[in-house]
């Protein structure tokens, strides 16, 4: 739900629908529910409705971690922090559409940057709550996380504004964030599972290998977040910024590939060291 909300928000802004609803919030053009046809008012209203349902579900997840059994302190903390930050996201979103025009200049680069950053923080906290709440990791999950991270980042490159492959139209922008956030989720999982492997080895995966994988994933996630920020109109996107964006994207891919390759190499070493049993 949060991943889809991200893409809906990007699509809404890219189509200019964030300026719809006559700059009203929570009403939309003096209506609670606008005409249910594909138009800017409906796009903005649908984004708000999806956000509302998602917000209630985030609160429900946090409550589940406290009322349910088997969840540790870090899982509860991550889910609770996501709820604590949620009002900030709602407030920034309201400012973005200018709170019925009460906040002049609310639809600005700075509010867009804040809206994106807070949303990414909530998404990351929910990812951690999901990963930690799922129980102890293992080498297979770590390898899968690294693979998902690499696949997501490579896929996002096809839609990125840094790569002149597709026109960076609203659908492409939404697709860029869906794939980019999938890569982000994979990197978050890689870091979480690698950190766990440092403390207690997975199936012979040594602490040294786990630390290397974690370092590569941390570097990759830093570069990927840079591309996610540059995916919005936060700067005057000149040829220089395009080159910077391309370099950041390349670094993210290279480091994610390095993490995946390191885990593959560890597999080969371990498999090669297993003795063949006799009779």
Automatic annotation (TrEMBL):
<keyword id="KW-1003">Cell membrane</keyword>
<feature type="transmembrane region" description="Helical">
    <location>
        <begin position="215"/>
        <end position="232"/>
    </location>
</feature>
<keyword id="KW-0812">Transmembrane</keyword>
<keyword id="KW-1133">Transmembrane helix</keyword>
<feature type="transmembrane region" description="Helical">
    <location>
        <begin position="141"/>
        <end position="162"/>
    </location>
</feature>
<dbReference type="GO" id="GO:0016020">
    <property type="term" value="C:membrane"/>
</dbReference>
<feature type="transmembrane region" description="Helical">
    <location>
        <begin position="114"/>
        <end position="134"/>
    </location>
</feature>
<dbReference type="GO" id="GO:0016491">
    <property type="term" value="F:oxidoreductase activity"/>
</dbReference>
<feature type="transmembrane region" description="Helical">
    <location>
        <begin position="79"/>
        <end position="102"/>
    </location>
</feature>
<dbReference type="Pfam" id="PF02628">
    <property type="entry name" value="COX15-CtaA"/>
</dbReference>
<keyword id="KW-0408">Iron</keyword>
<dbReference type="GO" id="GO:0006783">
    <property type="term" value="P:heme biosynthetic process"/>
</dbReference>
<keyword id="KW-0479">Metal-binding</keyword>
<feature type="transmembrane region" description="Helical">
    <location>
        <begin position="174"/>
        <end position="194"/>
    </location>
</feature>
<protein>
    <submittedName>
        <fullName>COX15/CtaA family protein</fullName>
    </submittedName>
</protein>
<dbReference type="InterPro" id="IPR050450">
    <property type="entry name" value="COX15/CtaA_HemeA_synthase"/>
</dbReference>
<dbReference type="GO" id="GO:0046872">
    <property type="term" value="F:metal ion binding"/>
</dbReference>
<keyword id="KW-1015">Disulfide bond</keyword>
<comment type="pathway">
    <text>Porphyrin-containing compound metabolism.</text>
</comment>
<feature type="transmembrane region" description="Helical">
    <location>
        <begin position="244"/>
        <end position="263"/>
    </location>
</feature>
<keyword id="KW-0472">Membrane</keyword>
<feature type="transmembrane region" description="Helical">
    <location>
        <begin position="46"/>
        <end position="67"/>
    </location>
</feature>
<dbReference type="InterPro" id="IPR003780">
    <property type="entry name" value="COX15/CtaA_fam"/>
</dbReference>
<keyword id="KW-0560">Oxidoreductase</keyword>
<keyword id="KW-0350">Heme biosynthesis</keyword>
């Amino acid at each position: 739900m949060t991943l889809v909300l991200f893409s809906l928000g990007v699509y809404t802004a890219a189509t200019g629908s964030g300026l719809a609803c006559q700059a009203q919030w929570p009403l939309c053009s003096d209506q609670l529910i606008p005409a249910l046809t594909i138009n800017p008012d409906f796009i903005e209203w649908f984004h708000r409705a999806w956000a509302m349902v998602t917000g209630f579900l985030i609160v429900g997840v946090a409550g589940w971690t406290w009322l349910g059994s088997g969840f540790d302190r870090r899982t509860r903390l991550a889910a609770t922090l996501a709820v604590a930050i949620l009002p900030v996201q709602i407030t920034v979103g309201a400012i973005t559409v200018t709170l019925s025009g009460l906040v002049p200049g609310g639809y600005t680069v700075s509010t867009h940057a804040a809206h994106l950053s807070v949303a990414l923080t909530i998404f990351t906290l929910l990812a951690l709550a999901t990963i930690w709440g799922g129980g102890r990791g293992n080498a297979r999950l770590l390898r899968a996380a690294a693979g998902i991270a690499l696949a997501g980042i490579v896929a996002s490159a096809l839609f990125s504004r840094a790569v002149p492959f597709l026109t960076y139209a609203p659908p492409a922008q939404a697709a860029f964030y869906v794939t980019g956030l999938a890569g982000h989720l994979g990197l978050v999982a890689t870091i979480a599972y690698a950190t766990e492997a440092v403390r207690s080895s997975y199936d012979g995966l040594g602490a040294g290998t786990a630390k290397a994988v974690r370092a590569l994933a941390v570097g990759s996630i830093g570069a990927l977040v840079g591309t996610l920020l540059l995916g919005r109109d936060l700067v005057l996107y000149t040829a220089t910024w395009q080159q910077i964006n391309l370099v950041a994207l390349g670094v993210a891919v290279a480091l994610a590939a390095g993490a995946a390759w390191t885990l593959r190499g560890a597999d080969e070493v371990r498999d090669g060291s297993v003795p063949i049993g006799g009779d």
